[in-house]
């Protein structure tokens, strides 16, 4: 046909026609199922908004490209190759998904850091720098630890301030940010675009903390560092970073892992206050807390129970399941999810021993058996001449070079005693990369609590749960019971959105293992510092105003919704409990049983303090306690995408305006920093984030969208 169109018969045109026809036929056969409509359903169809899906397409291509170029040396070549590979994977998007799936199946620390810290690439850094707003101050600061701290490592932070530098000394309000990064990656420099936008929009100083990352600094190092930062800033009234030093109001912010740290700062303040009610601490509460897609629940239903782990250890000690038990020690591998022995770099292995030969035997006879004196006990061999394994419990051969006859690695099987300093950092197991090691003799950092302590904690939680249930029962008598929102088969968001393009289940498990580290064995069902969603109601009732934001398709969306509901529920119960206490009744003993205020007041507070707390809660509505925003068809990490999504840029600006409004409407004269129940209320929500009143159900979703964007979340 081509020669007919050209008007001149030519054998080369016919050959070209045959080639094109063959390629077309092959392509059609490979995609015959799609042509006939028999292809598999697309799991991501209608899951994300078009703008968010386009952003994740670019992010996935960048992740695949950077992961592919990760092993290239030198650095200048790796930076250039990362961009080239990323462009390739943006064109071939399916190849990018498959490449990233393989990398994420067994993620290493280096892989996670390389793919998340992409903006340190000089080419991407230049692009984001050109799009970021200008600020007067962009400064790296080191802060000392407070005197009461157990640590001596200085705190590293980055300060951003948009107005002229001479105005910094007049500032009395500070935005204290804890950036996300799965507890293992990303410093404030990787969140710089957002931090600059906050500084410009709010006209307040923004201090972002570069806290210690796992596995080098495992749990609870980052939590303690976050609390030490807040404490040293409050004690100095901000003078350490150049503020006036007369007074200081702080709003805490955190996204993803940083949200966990921000919540823990508030919990630590409340714990410190409740330790001694008669002499409350002078450490004030933050003005408000802003959380973006926080990770508040580490109970991924992936952890072995204590009883099952005990049985596994027992089987391991008997020698029958040694290899299987070693696989469960995730910190002995380079990747926390690896289930096979690591492949060490060949050049870094210990000296290899060659296979013995008949020359060695003759040499041994000539030396009169001196070589045999080194090991008087002969090796056991089979009839075929191959070596037999040593007997179980034979300590003499426990560390023998059992692979001498097969040109194999003669390293010890006990990796804990191996010197890993000879390996490059990326080839060391996680346990060998830990820099801060907690003393084993310290009861405060023991691997697990004693049975008595666990029992007492469980009983305390049970009593508190019963009290809350009784209080709610007294106040809701005669009310119609609400219908349950699901059944026992309802999936969590982590399970429902297991195909998320930003945070995969394997990455979540890897981050949890790396974050917890080798020094702790927490109980994921009760430890509310690991999982703040489990915090006791009496602490949640004292929380400052909260703004929570999350994508509706985020694997962590359940954390946001449930935490917001628990705070509302705790404040409702506390308000009702105070009404009963001051009226001489007690829900703990039943509504009909009259008691004096002195008898029911077991908190050590005076009636005036209880009345002031009750009046404060009575003057607030639930929007003053918690404001929650869920963005329709978005998932995780949108605060990192202002360059890729104009909607994300608008959300960042809205958050800055919300914080500016919180500072403006906060009246320091109403705050009594010495009161253990002090919470600071944002009386009027920002008009840009006005949300409908919350549903009476504690787990109800409150969805707010920007009208000018036209986004709408499904009910």
UniProtKB/TrEMBL annotation:
Residues of the Alpha/beta hydrolase fold-3 domain: 176-305, 492-575
Annotated stretches, region: Disordered: 332-433, 674-715
A biological-process GO annotation: triglyceride catabolic process
Compositionally biased residues, Acidic residues: 411-420
Biased composition annotated in UniProt, kind: Basic residues: 347-356, 706-715
Pfam families referenced in this protein's UniProt entry, alphabetically: Abhydrolase_3
GO molecular function, a single term: triacylglycerol lipase activity
Cellular component GO terms held in the UniProt record: cytosol
Superkingdom of the source species: Eukaryota
UniProt protein name: Alpha/beta hydrolase fold-3 domain-containing protein
Biological source species: Candolleomyces eurysporus
